[in-house]
Design a protein that fits this description.
about 20% strand; about 190 residues; globular; Rossmann fold; alpha/beta
Length: about 190
Amino acid sequence: MHSPNRLVVLASGVGSLTEALIDAEKTGHLSGHIVAVGSDRESGAVGIARTAGIPTFTVRPTDFDHRDLWDQALRQTVALFKPTLVVSAGFMRVLGAAFLDEFEGLTINSHPALLPLFPGGHAVRDALEAGVSETGCTVHWISAGVDTGRVIAQRRVAVQPGDDVASLHERIKEQERQLLVEVINQLV
């Protein structure tokens, strides 16, 4: 029997967070059912979901004349799946007013830094360039703005001598995968 907690996952990249959520559901460690995985492009996350038999969708910004039209189309597509929670797991787009009008307060994001430090798409690089001794990951509610929503939970990750963006990001992702599952379980 499937959980009544319906999750729509949005992802743009290789899909390691999406895969962690799918694996957690398969093993009974996720208090929710992933009803769809969506993207803004053909992505690894969509491929992983297809392989797992999860419905997928792609809403490409380049298919629309204006960003607001894309945002409305994304909202309409996500709404078709009747989610109780939308999970941005490496989704590299800012969600606009049309989307948030329907899903603000129902949408969380996983971010590879300790917000409010290092918002945006280059958080790991920015942390390294700032010379911090630790960074980490944050799960937060999505609101208007870039990574400005209320923090739900964080995990710290030490920056090690010789770290580059790839090595540090991989250690952050290990924590991020666990934290995202824990937060979803708390929320649903």
